[in-house]
Specification:
With 313 residues, this protein is of the alpha+beta class. It contains 7 helices and 16 strands.
């Protein structure tokens, strides 16, 4: 003999909020449950199509995904409420009408699918990375959380002046954020006066001196001077900390093979970059940096609200 129990419209709506389709499952509508869950999860596909396929901005693609999620939740909630009312007093409980079955479906379909989609987005489309050293001072500071555009089209279009992320080829683990200063074939010469690319010295203009805070090997924070200059790269003026003088160790002349990239940090005296590990192939790039998502000051252990949303140029 089957057990009957009235379906609650309120509970059906509440179940639709964490995962559209659960309210329909609660009311015995298996096909509708599957369709609403698929519509909800299509929000991730909409984001990928808009951001990677159509070239929308990250914000616009995000709003599209949230719109799909929201519409799916509202539509599923309304449908589930009607389905609960139509089930009446004599709804025969099915084997899956158990609270722990709803929980299992939410964990597998809802959280599991969303976690998989987020993992794919971070690996193939866009990720947030942490600036771990002072190699890009003054533009980027230790503790900045930057957004890295990993789309294939973006990486193919990377050129001189762009800030990119790549794993350190020496240790294979540390993410280095550096600026493209030359694309091979060509020659790069570095000295205390600046850079020569292809035999031509890059234009520079000197700015008032500055300073920044640096974490030393002994774990103590110290104030470091910065000889602030602007250098013309890729048709833009880039602000950087120039090398302090002619006796610097960072000098030399290097050949850049065809298709390879020469990457330097904006902090020319401190950065770990191509002056140490040589040019990198384009395929070694992980993404192009385009925005500071937010920033956390590791010395003061507090947020830097003024850096949130800063474009990276």
């Amino acid at each position: 003999m089957s057990v009957t129990k009235r379906r609650s419209a309120v509970l059906a709506v509440l179940l639709s909020i964490p995962l559209p389709g659960l309210g329909q499952l609660y009311c015995g509508r298996l096909l509708a449950a599957t369709l609403f869950a698929l519509v909800y999860l299509s929000g991730w596909a909409a984001f990928g199509l808009a951001f990677a396929g159509l070239g929308w901005t990250l914000g616009a693609a995000g709003w599209l995904a949230f719109a799909v999620f929201g519409l799916a939740i509202v539509a599923a909630g309304l449908h589930a409420a009607l389905a609960a009312r139509r089930a009446g007093e004599a709804y025969a409980l099915a084997p899956y009408n158990l609270w722990y079955f709803y929980l299992l479906v939410w964990l597998v379909v809802g959280l599991g699918s969303s976690a998989g989609a987020l993992s794919w987005i971070r690996a193939a489309l866009v990720s947030t990375e942490v600036v771990v050293d002072d190699g890009m001072v003054p533009g980027l500071l230790p503790g900045d959380r930057i957004r890295l555009d990993r789309r294939t089209g973006t990486l193919a279009a990377v050129g001189v002046g762009d800030v990119v992320g790549a794993l350190d080829p020496v240790d294979g683990r540390t993410l280095r954020l550096l600026r493209v200063v030359a694309v091979g074939p060509g020659e790069v010469e570095m000295d205390a006066e600046g850079l020569k690319v292809g035999g031509e010295r890059l234009a520079r203009r000197v700015l008032p001196g500055s300073e920044y805070r640096r974490l030393g090997a002994d774990g103590q924070w110290t104030t470091e001077p910065c000889r602030l200059v602007e250098e013309q790269l890729g048709g833009r003026w880039v602000r950087l900390c120039a090398q302090p003088g002619a006796g610097t160790r960072r000098s030399g002349r290097w050949d850049v093979p065809a298709g390879a990239l020469w990457l330097l940090g904006d902090n020319r005296a401190r950065a770990v970059d191509s002056a140490g590990f040589g040019p990198l192939p384009r395929g070694a790039l992980l993404g192009a940096a385009f925005e500071v998502r937010y920033s956390f000051d590791p010395e003061r252990r507090s947020l830097r609200p003024e850096r949130k949303g800063l474009p990276i140029r």
